[in-house]
Write a structure and sequence with these properties.
Elements (H helix, E strand, L loop, with lengths): L1 H34 L1 H32 L6 H26 L1 H23 L1
GO molecular function: odorant binding; olfactory receptor activity
Protein name: G-protein coupled receptors family 1 profile domain-containing protein
Organism: Eleginops maclovinus
Length: 125
């Protein structure tokens, strides 16, 4: 009974959050359709990183919920995925939002280009 209650509560919470987000994005889409291509492009650039982060979070959440329902799995595996659930989304979040910023993305590309050219010079010497 506990498993059924836990799964149903998880489903209800995740579904309600998804519906709120979907409603918000539908409203944004509806507003940008009237304004033209440039408004849609800007809206997509602003919304896409959030959707990627949300999908990653939900994926980690579903994996964690499913793993907790299997008592035969070792505690080490359960702890590992619990830590991943807590650590990975916050670590990936700034990377995804940072890549959405043109200035930051350009700076990162320049930095990696400089590092790559230095390693080629060192390797070629």
């Amino acid at each position: 009974m506990n498993n059924i209650y836990g799964l149903s509560m998880s489903w209800c919470l995740n579904t309600s959050v998804f519906l709120i987000i979907a409603f918000t994005y539908l409203r944004i889409l509806h507003a940008t359709v009237k304004q033209g291509r440039s408004a849609r492009s800007k809206a997509f650039q602003k919304c896409a990183p959030h959707l990627v982060v949300y999908v990653l979070y939900q994926t980690a959440s579903v994996i964690l919920i499913i793993i907790q329902r299997f008592p035969s799995l070792s505690q080490t595996i359960k702890r590992f995925f619990s830590i991943l659930f807590i650590v990975i989304p916050p670590v990936i979040n700034p990377i995804i939002y940072g890549l959405a910023s043109k200035e930051l993305r350009t700076s990162i590309v320049k930095h990696f280009y400089k590092c790559g050219s230095r390693s080629q010079k060192i390797g070629g010497v």
